[in-house]
Amino acid sequence: MLPATFKLCAGISYRHMSNMTGIRKNAMVAINQELIRLARPEPTNWTGQVRRRSSLLSSRIQENDVYSAEEKLYVKQGDQALQMGISILSDQEGWTLETTAANGDKVFSKMLPDNRKVFKLEGMIEQPPDSLYGELVVNMEQMGDWNPNVKQVKVLQRVGQHTMVTHEVSAETPGKVVGPRDFVSVRCTKRRGSSCFLAGMSTQHPNMPEQKGVIRAENGVTCIVLKPCADEPNKTKLTWLLNLDLKGWIPKTVINRVLSQTLVDFAKHLRLRMADTVSMEMAQPC
After folding, report:
1. What is the mean pLDDT of each run of 10 residues along the chain (286 residues)?
2. What is the DSSP letter of 160?
3. Helices 23-38 & 2-11, crossing angle to 10 degrees?
4. Which candidate among 39, 50, 70, 249 keeps its CA 20 to 30 Å from the CA of 98?
5. How many CA within 13 A on the CB side of residue 238?
């Protein structure tokens, strides 16, 4: 309709047509009707798509405008960690089974091309992904309350909805085999369909230089994936890629044992935390 209206308007611009009876009046009526149609509350599919894309583009331009150079770097690092983490986990070749827990949790290891060893946990948790996402992302700073391997997690800075910089302090291992370590990490949280991702890697932050008496360890690319079970959507497949350089003079055999146990312990304490949360919710009066 709109192209036809434009043709009609173009036609009356010629002198011999503009003098024709009724043409000018019909053109004005057609334009008025077309404008009314476009102004209706329910836009056509085409106009809806244009508006959505325009809004998305506008928001991206606005974000780029308000982010500082430092913030843009954090966003870039977070996106890189997510892409690299998914890439490592997607490659099924080269994984070696390290241990299998009594509850079925499995820990695998793999050597990356840069001669760095990474670990992967696979387990099933009887909670929907959204609940676990809330505990691991929204309530991230409370992790020290339920995971004895973590002393503290603090969010140093947030950049937009999906990126943050954190400072974590780990507890010393039993027997003091490995002392406390701290990490400064950039983290990227994303949802893709029904799956949730929490990826990260080491970075630097001006408000958290290295601390005296604590070894600053390094987070390689890490990634937690929460994926609902196909047959039971209230259960979640938990996959955690762990990639740490603890620094210090520690034998590799000790490091491998400590990291494998860290993964198993994490899943165990996460289940206990979620069970306690469910119990408290059920105990609340209606």
Report:
1. 47 47 53 52 48 50 73 97 96 95 95 92 95 95 96 96 96 85 97 93 96 91 95 93 91 90 95 84 60
2. T
3. 150
4. 249
5. 28
